[in-house]
Amino acid sequence: VFFSPDDDGADAVTSTPDSWVWIGDNSINTALDNGVDVTFETNAEGTRDGDIVVRSDADIVKSSGADSTLTFRAHDDIEINGSISSSGSGKLSVVLTADFDGSGGDSNITINAAINLNGGEFDATAPNDFTIASAGVINANGGDVTIDQDGTFSSADANSISTHTSGDIEINQNVGGSIQNALDAINNGGSGESKINLGNGIFAQSTNINKAVTIEGEGRNSTTITPGASSNGFTIDGTIDGTVEIAKLTVDGGSAGVRVNDTADVNELIVDKAVFKNNGLHGVAVFGDSVGS
Fold it and tell me: What is the C-alpha separation between 241 and 167, in angstroms, rounded?
């Protein structure tokens, strides 16, 4: 399915399984403005891959009406190249599911444009990778953001995922992806939780933490951080108005498992169900008066 601007003459149409379906953006915008939930779904019929693509010159805009949800359920990949936004009083939620029918493909979700929601939810699920490219941002404006992929998460820029007030941000990261990259992408300006879920396996990396976040593995016998002898598993620094929690993982073979620098000012540090072994200096090292509790 291709979503295009209506000046291309596109509208909601039917076609044979071997051709593209072109849908004009005004068709979607009108429905969303009327408070109607809109769902598009592709299947495995024909020779096409079953992708859903929003073209770069198509803008999906909800400008009025009650709350509504835009759902893309693709047999294969989802690619957002045109903006999706809500500018009216109603909230717009966006749900993206790649390989919704469980066909077993390496289906990806790629965000190449701005998604700005008016307090709605953003929920994405993919069996492979989730990528935010350099032009991509997700701003829920107080809503929750949940990204659940079985492959890796990556963002070209820092602060690409935003919310505020009570909105939560939750991202999965798996072996092959960067914990630091996922953390840097989070920009939560409110009181909601920010969380990174780590999958099974060995993450050969270290992470610098400068914001309130929970980093949680799948279990201390399942998720292992190996930062190397000269690096810490996690280094906490800067002013953090909130809680940093490290849970359900093992840090093996670093300098320190968790180090809180004396230049840090963090309200609270929680270490829960974590194992630190073969680290050269400390399991958890707190320097100065850097942690409130």
Answer: 16
Q: For the segment 227-250, what is each residue's pLDDT rounded down to a tens digit? A: 999 999 999 999 999 999 999 999
Are 231 and 205 spatial neighbours (Cβ–Cβ below 8 Å)? Answer: no
The token pair that represents 163 in the structure block:
């919310």
What DSSP character marks residue 291?
A: B
Share of the chain above pLDDT 70, in %: 91
Do residues 24 and 12 touch, judged by C-beta distance below 8 A? yes
Q: Which residues have a Cβ under 8 Å from the Cβ of 289 and sit 6 or more positions away?
A: none
Tally Cβ neighbours within 10 Å of residue 267: 14
Query: Residue 37's CB: how many other CB atoms inside 10 A?
Result: 13
Q: What is the rounded (10 degree) CA torsion for 94, 102, 186, 276?
A: 150
Q: What is the Cβ-side half-sphere exposure of residue 279, based on CA atoms within 13 angstroms? A: 25
pLDDT of 3 = 63
Could you read off the pLDDT of 47-99 as tens digits, one per residue? Answer: 678 999 999 988 999 999 999 999 999 999 999 999 999 988 899 999 999 99
Instruction: Give the number of other CB atoms < 10 A from CB of residue 150.
Output: 16
At residue 279, what is the residue type? N
Q: To 10 degrees, the CA torsion angle through 147, 123, 151, 258?
A: 10
Q: How far is CA 135 from CA 48, 55, 97, 100, in A?
A: 27, 14, 21, 26
